[in-house]
């Protein structure tokens, strides 16, 4: 029996749209509701208590929209507040476990790098998950606090010297460690893939958390008979906590397609 309820996705801002893009690509018949907490981005520099508070509010909002699953498309929430999903009445997915699994499968020399927000890196969430399945792995993790603001501003071009120089400085320890696999540990970071790949070199495999999570979601919905059905025309609805002038431009850049402004709505998340 088809389940046409929407998939719920939330993120601290617009970076989670990279996860939504992968979900829509693999599950084109699914309805999707996306909430971006643009009024409080970034989460990665906040305290653990604040991040958990925000995650609970975001999840509550999605539940009010009758979603069938919730995806925390935020590396920071997945790293320090994934337990907020334990008591939800619908299945909950975070993005770190699947990225860690993909990295272990991809590495050839056992040297894995992780890029993330300060909160994600200090949690060591990726490291713990990788070592649980690959105890001998050598992991180099680097905090990149400037990456999210760059992406939210649409500064992603490898030819932009500010972007290139920022990335080069962050990536120096990873090059020195000779990593052959690199987890983009924040859902904003795939938009910087070109500059990261250019600096790291073609032989380094970049792990997109959105792709790994989308595969897991597709498998789960299929195995549990929760797909919308082949006849459903998948729809997208966007909610944000603060409407910025650049929202549509940035969202279209992240999704790789035009979006209908009529499908975007601002909500007061503090009143949820």
List keywords for this structure.
272 residues, alpha/beta, 6-stranded parallel beta sheet, 4-stranded parallel beta sheet, 10 strands, 17% strand
Short note summarizing the structure:
This protein has 272 residues and is α/β, with parallel strands linked by helices. It has helices at 17-26, 48-63, 75-80, 96-106, 118-123, 125-133, 147-152, 161-176, 193-200, 209-223, 247-255, and strands spanning 7-11, 32-36, 69-72, 92-94, 111-116, 138-143, 181-184, 205-208, 236-240, 264-266.
List the topology elements.
Layout (H helix, E strand, L loop, with lengths): L6 E5 L5 H10 L5 E5 L11 H16 L5 E4 L2 H6 L11 E3 L1 H11 L4 E6 L1 H6 L1 H9 L4 E6 L3 H6 L8 H16 L4 E4 L8 H8 L4 E4 H15 L12 E5 L6 H9 L8 E3 L6
Parallel strand pairs: 1-2, 1-3, 2-9, 3-4, 5-6, 5-7, 7-8, 9-10
Helix pairs in contact: 1-10, 4-6, 4-10, 8-9
Verbal overview:
The chain has 272 residues and is an alpha/beta fold. It has helices at 17-26, 48-63, 75-80, 96-106, 118-123, 125-133, 147-152, 161-176, 193-200, 209-223, 247-255, and strands at 7-11, 32-36, 69-72, 92-94, 111-116, 138-143, 181-184, 205-208, 236-240, 264-266. A 6-stranded parallel β-sheet has the order 4-3-1-2-9-10, with helices on both faces. A 4-stranded parallel β-sheet has the order 6-5-7-8, with helices on both faces. α1 packs across α10 (209-223) and α4 (96-106) crosses α6. The protein is globular and about 50 Å long.
């Amino acid at each position: 029996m088809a389940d046409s309820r929407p998939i719920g996705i939330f993120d601290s801002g617009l970076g989670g749209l990279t996860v939504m893009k992968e979900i829509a690509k693999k599950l084109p018949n699914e309805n999707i509701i996306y909430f971006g907490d643009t009024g409080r981005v970034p989460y990665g520099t906040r305290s653990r208590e604040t991040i958990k508070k925000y995650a609970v509010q975001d999840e509550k909002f999605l539940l009010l929209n009758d979603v069938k699953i919730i995806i925390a498309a935020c590396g920071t929430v997945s790293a320090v507040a994934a337990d907020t999903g334990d008591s939800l009445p619908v299945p909950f997915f975070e993005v770190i476990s699947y990225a860690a699994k993909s990295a272990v499968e991809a590495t050839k020399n056992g040297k894995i790098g992780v890029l993330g927000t300060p909160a994600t890196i200090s949690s060591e969430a990726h490291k713990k998950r990788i070592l649980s399945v690959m105890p001998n792995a050598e992991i180099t993790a680097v905090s990149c606090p400037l990456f999210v603001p760059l992406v939210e501003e649409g500064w992603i071009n490898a030819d932009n010297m500010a972007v290139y120089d920022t990335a080069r400085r962050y990536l120096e320890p990873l090059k020195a460690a000779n990593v052959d696999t690199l987890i983009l540990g924040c859902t904003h970071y795939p938009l910087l893939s070109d500059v990261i790949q250019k600096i790291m070199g073609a032989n380094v495999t970049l792990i997109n958390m959105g792709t790994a999570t989308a595969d897991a979601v597709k498998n789960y919905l299929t195995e549990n008979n929760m797909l919308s059905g082949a006849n459903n025309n998948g729809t997208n609805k966007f909610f944000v906590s603060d409407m910025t002038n650049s929202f549509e431009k940035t969202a279209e850049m992240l999704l790789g397609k035009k979006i209908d402004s009529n499908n975007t709505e601002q909500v007061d998340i503090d009143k949820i």
